[in-house]
Amino acid sequence: MSDSVQIRTGLGEILGEQADGVIRFRIVPYARPPVGDLRFAPPKPPLPWSGVLDARAVGPIAPQPQSRLRMAMGDFQREQSEDCLTLAISTPAITGKRPVVVWLHGGAYLSGAGSLDWYDGGPLARAGDVVVVGVNYRLGPLGFLHYPGLSDGMMGLHDMVAALQFVRDHIASFGGDPDCVTLMGQSAGGGAILRLIDFDNTEGLFHRVIVQSGPPRPGPTAAEASRRTRRYMEILGIDADAPDAGEQLRRAPLDQLITQQMTVARELSRFAAIEPAFPPCFDNYAPDYADRVAAGIVSRGIELMIGTTSEEMNAFFLADPSMTSPDPAAVAERFETLGGSAGTLEAYRRHHPGGSLRDLLGDLITDHRFVLPSLDLAQRVRAHGGSAFVYEFNWSGPNSKWKACHCIELAFCFGTLPAWNAPMLEGLDPGMYAELSATMMAAWSGFAHRGDPSLPDLAWPQYGAGRETMCFGNAVRVVGDQAGLAWKRAGQ
Which residues are catalytic? Predict the structure, then answer.
């Protein structure tokens, strides 16, 4: 049974639906539709509406191709539209002032949506007494194409800022506290959080961050992003030097914009690399970027929780037929370049007996793409006088080839198992899932409430000299590494 619930905001009245102890508003506009002349433009504030906005049904998601991780995560089907700048809000009640968790989904800035059933905020809102806000933002070239005079390559990030501004101005109407906002993101969403910390106009919009498998990473410079855009326009049949080139992009058919971005992606693909074709520009990325982010976290008084899964790269490599038997010379080159010496391969082999070249390469890229940068950021925050909590998710199904791959923790921290039909979750014991998910939701929501994910019977220490890390899996416990990670850090 469900009942309708109507609230009043500064923009107008909204109709939501109450069921199972949660009120959901599934399609709340936080900006004007970025269509027509607003395609590629920064988001514009939403206009007030008359009457009652019915937010009970799900809305369209950003235009996108199929997810490249669907073999691990499963797939989804949703209506797609450029009119997609909406929030999915779940709240235990419309009265009171609860902590707010704003969710930025992953998907390589290419696919996904904050309003997918995978990320339904209801279970977390109910279990943790928090308001959960899922953000839909522009993706691919519509969100991150860089072309001087048309777009700065960060429209999707500007969308996220607009969503946070909506939360600041209106979340009290949904029972949320705008002065207690946790920004939570995974993969691209986690990386976006760190980028937003470096934005001048985000100070005070969020107070805690949870970064899941999304440590600081460089992206294309403005010059490189412009080069990619020129190639993209060439594929679309647009002369990049024509006076009306930008206008032609605004008028280009949507299906061609979505399809042809994959042509650019294929041309840019490199061995054992997973970078998307159209991520945000990072013209100010430098060797000190992670330190600048860490300093920003501390100077703004932001509390940090960060972590990864144990075998992140399995989601990518096991879905790629070309990685079944990778070229030994190419693998050796990756180990020498990232590890600092040819002997790094043998070090990884000793830590993964019987592992194939693909397995060992996955271990290497997992470490250098996800684990080590996350630990480095936590250490830098600590060095600047702040605090961080670090986790690792290491559960995997019995005999699962996916192991603890990228994205596998999401069904647990959201408590949304019924929404998933994911090969990476095969072999999951329902009883174990219920208990582990409850523990993770309690830790995540505890962090949103107090800035500390510790539970009454499960102390989670801050990351320190012992590299204290909370592990979530068949056993939930704190581990450390006083001996260091020298064998992984060779050459760093």
Answer: 187, 312, 406
